[in-house]
Design a protein that fits this description.
The chain is mainly beta and 120 residues long. Helix content is 13%, strand content 44%. It has one domain.
Length: 120
């Protein structure tokens, strides 16, 4: 990510692809989160891995109804998680906590993260 002139900030085309992949994971469940996440609303900072010493670029969406993160690894891998927080449309007693998307540009995959409603 970093280069001689400072950090390389993420390509907006990559951001659009990632945000669309997140929304597709939600839509596969029959749900919608509207136009969220919006790439331009993510805040980015470099983060150094204490084990490998590699610097990744970490983006965060916060301050609205949902929270999310994306990590752009130096080798081109991507991992993102974005809150959904909606009842599962088919599985009674479950809700979709978030969706996760991972892979590389052009080959992003994903899955939902489900949780059970807790009642006292």
């Amino acid at each position: 990510m970093p280069n001689s002139s400072g950090p390389a900030w993420p390509d907006p085309v990559l951001g659009i692809e990632l945000c669309q992949a997140i929304r597709r994971q939600v839509e596969k469940l029959g749900l919608t989160i509207g136009d969220e996440p919006i790439w331009a609303e993510a805040s980015f900072a470099e983060q150094r891995d204490p084990f490998s010493g590699e610097s990744s670029l970490v983006g965060v969406w916060k301050g609205k109804a949902r929270y999310g993160t994306v990590t752009l690894f130096p080798d081109g891998r991507i991992f993102a998680e974005y809150q959904v927080l909606l009842p599962h449309p088919v599985q009674s007693g479950q809700y979709v906590e978030s969706v996760q998307v991972w892979g590389r540009s052009g080959a992003l995959k994903g899955d939902p993260v489900l949780a059970a409603f807790v009642t006292s």
